[in-house]
Amino acid sequence: MSESSFLGVSRVPEFRVLFVAEILSILSLVAVQITLSVLIFDRTGSPLLSSLAFALGFLPHLLGASLLSSAADRFPARTVMVATQLVSGAVMACMAIPGTPIPVMLMLLVVSGTVAPVYSGARSTALADVLTPEGFPLGRSLLRIAAQTAQIGGFSFGGALMLAASPPVALSIAAALMVFSALVVGLGTVRRPGREVSGGLVASSLSGTFRALRAPGLRAVLLLSWVPAALFVWPEALAAPLASSMGGGPMLVALLLTAGPVGTVVGEVAAGALLDAEGRRRWMLPLAFVAFLPMTLFVLEPGPAVAVAVLALGALGWGYTLALDALLLAEAPEETRGRVFSLGSAGLMISQGAGFALAGAMAEFLPAHLVVALAGVGGAVSVAVFGRRFVGRRGVRTAI
To answer: Which PANTHER family match (predicted)?
Structure first.
């Protein structure tokens, strides 16, 4: 069957393996974050140290992408994926040892976060080998949908683990899930040779990163992925103060938090199911604007129902990322794909983390609804600035 549809992509055996492995790894990672956050707070009573259990999950991504990403090109993708997942599993098993000091746990989180972008780069490289260029963006979309769904379910899973088992047992179960993910990849995918990479691991990783950022087309694709994503998370970051200003409670906070993720899933499914590759390229920039322009309505200080609807409808525009994935594959040199994909994954994680922090800082000086409106304006401007390179290209609408 052709890989021009989600169904066609899902029928590729190796893709199904990567899909299952992604769900297992996300469940494991979220369970660890929740368990450590609760465990550290119980031991120290410090909200700051507790929050580091979440922050240190993505901050080291830059380190891994800069210094280790060439491993995703140098070695077979299957080998890299299995090795990095086993490292993460071993880290979790060390955390599960009763009495492990808090500083040691935090350092172990740094190790896990450092190898994460290498895994992501190798997984995307494997995806490009397994699927055709037409199927690649659909496969990436399905993995994103799986990750987002597993992350939402992972919070419930982690909470249930904390209720049913002690922290060491919960961490041991998370480690077992990560090892199982590695086994699924190792047994279910084909070993393909790595690419010839000159220089040492660190030197080639750094050179690949600089090369990607110096290439105008590739840099534009990466920035069109990172900057809008940093602004798109502002409503989630401010869900609690937004709900408070509207007179709502925890239920409204939950609705504001889920409106965006639900909308993005629906938007990606719609873009993949209703538009062909040419249609997705044609509507990439208009859809990107749709993701942000509705947020500007928050300047009117909408009520709860309108606010949730605006966030959900705007998130439908996130279907633009399917065309962006196709552009990323087209712009990334084949010999440095692993490094480019690692950099893209790390940059996305870091930009979203920075977006959360910046939204909170802005809300110290402005009402939350105005901060969200500013995010809408900033997002639209970033789409115009970083998307202008693609105006006039075949399949991309010329009106910005």
So the answer is: INTEGRAL MEMBRANE EFFLUX PROTEIN-RELATED, STAPHYLOFERRIN A TRANSPORTER
Q: Could you tell me the residue range of the domain that residue 358 belongs to?
A: 199-400
Q: How far apart are CA 165 and CA 163, in angstroms?
A: 6
The pLDDT tens digits for 260-302 are 888 998 999 999 888 888 888 889 999 999 999 999 999 999 9
pLDDT value of position 398: 36
State pTM to two decimals: 0.82
Is residue 335 one of the residues assigned to a domain? yes
CA distance linking residue 178 with residue 32, whole number of Å: 11
Question: Does the structure show a pLDDT above 50 at 399?
Answer: no
List, in sequence order, the alpha helices (H) in 60-135.
61-67, 71-74, 77-95, 102-130
Quote the crossing angle between the two packed helices 136-164 and 250-274, to the nearest 10°.
150
CA distances from 189 to 11, 15, 82, 186 (A): 14, 9, 11, 6
Same domain for 105 and 4, yes or no, is yes
| Matching residue, tokens 């920039």 | 285
Considering the domain architecture, whether residues 31 and 136 belong to the same structural domain is answered as yes
Average pLDDT, the chain: 85
SS (H, E, C) 251-277: HHHHHHHHHHHHHHHHHHHHHHHHCCH
* Ramachandran angles phi, psi of 260, nearest 5°: -65, -55
Q: Cβ neighbours of residue 328 under 8 Å, at least 6 residues apart?
A: 218, 221, 222, 225, 340, 341, 344
Distances (CA, A) of 31 to 23, 52, 207: 12, 15, 35
Question: 225 with 356, same domain?
Answer: yes
DSSP 297-320: GGGG---HHHHHHHHHHHHGGGGG
Q: What is the CATH number of the domain that holds 74?
A: 1.20.1250.20
180 and 213 share one domain:
no
The domain boundary, picked from 156, 188, 220, lies at 188
